[in-house]
Amino acid sequence: MTLHTKPKVLSSDYFPQEIIAEALKQWDEIKAHLDISEQIAHIQKREFLNNVKLEVQGKIFRVKYYNYRSRFWHLLENLFYQSEAERNFRLMNYLCSIGIPTPKPVLLLENTIAGMAMESILIMEEIGLGKLYKDIISEIESAHKELIKFLKDVFSSIAQFNRTGLYSLDTDRNILIKRDNTKYKIYFFDFDNVFPFRKNNPRRAARTIYFLLRVRKIFKKFSPQEIEGLIELYLEQIGKKTWKKALLKELKKVALRKNPEDFAWLKDKIG
Predict the structure, then answer these.
(1) What pLDDT shows up at residue 6?
(2) What distance in Å separates the CA atoms of residue 187 and residue 127, rounded to the nearest whole number?
C-alpha cells in the first residue's frame, strides 16, 4: 500500500483572510524556484529561510522550514504530540492573546502521512529590527546602572513568560530585544523546545538564570547582593519566593558543572 502525503493548514486569527491567502500565494510562487527547492532539500532539522521575505499590504512575513524526515525520533514524536512547528504556531497564538510579545503567527502548512507531520512551513510576522540578548549585553556591559536596568527588564519578562506555566530551554538565545531610548521590550520567538509536560522548577529556573548571567561573564560585574536582588525579583514575580534556597543550591550545582569559579560567592550562602 502506498502512503500519500496529506496537507494540513492552520491559519491564525490575527490577520484577515485576504492577507493570509496572499501570503500563501507568494510562498507557493517562491517555493517553485529551483534555488529555494534546493535550499530546503539540504535542511536536516529546522531553519529560517533568511533569503525569503513575503510582503503583503505593507506587512513583512518570515518563513521557517521544519524537516522531520531525517529525524526518526521526531517522526515518532509527531504521532503522539503536535509537531515542533505546530507547537510554535499555537504558542504564538496563545502568547499574543495574553499580551506577551512574540511574532504573530500567520499560517502553518504541514505535509502529513497517517496524521504524522513529515515537514512543516511556519509563516510569521517579522518582529522588526531588534538585537539578540548577547549583543545588547556587549553594548552596555560597561554601563553598570544601564546593565542592571536591562537585566531587571529581562528577568521580569521571563517571569511573565514562566507565569503562564511555560518553560523554554536556551532562553538567552531565544529572545529578541527592541530598544526605544531607555526602554527595553523583550520578544520571545522560538518555542521548539517548549513542551506542555516540561514545567518550571528551581533546577530549571537556576539553569535559565545561570546562562543569562554567564554571557560575557557579566556576573563578575555584580556584587552577590545585586545578583540576589535579581533572583528575588524573578521569584517574586512568578509567585515562588519559597524557591530561593532550592534555586541557589541548583545555581551552585550548574555553576560547578560548567565552571567552578562561577558564583563562588554561593558557598557562603549555602555551604
Answers:
(1) 64
(2) 8
Q: Judge whether 233 and 156 are in contact, CB under 8 Å.
A: yes
Pair 207, 247: CB distance under 8 Å: no
Strands (E), the chain: 6-11, 46-48, 54-56, 59-67, 105-113, 116-125, 131-132, 175-180, 183-188
Dump pLDDT digits (tens) for 184-208: 999 998 898 888 788 999 999 999 9
- Contact status, residue 91 vs residue 166, Cβ threshold 8 Å: yes
Place of cell 513575503: 54
Q: Express as a percent the part of the chain with pLDDT over 70.
A: 95
* Cα radius of gyration rounded to whole Å, the chain: 21
Instruction: Let me know the angle formed at the C-alpha of 73 by 48 and 90, rounded to the nearest 5 degrees.
Output: 50
Q: Please write the tens of the pLDDT for every residue from 250-268.
A: 998 888 887 777 777 676 6
Pick from 45, 62, 40: nearest CA to 107: 62
Host H or E run for residue 145:
helix 144-162
- The residue behind cell 561573564 is 217
In terms of C-beta density within 10 A (0-12 exposed, 13-18 middle, 19 or more buried), how is residue 133 classed? buried
Q: How many CB atoms lie within 10 A of CB 94?
A: 13
Q: How far apart are CA 126 and CA 49, in angstroms?
A: 12
Report how far residue 66's alpha carbon sits from residue 44's, in angstroms, rounded to the nearest whole number.
Answer: 8
Angle between helices 224-237 and 144-162 in degrees, nearest 10: 30
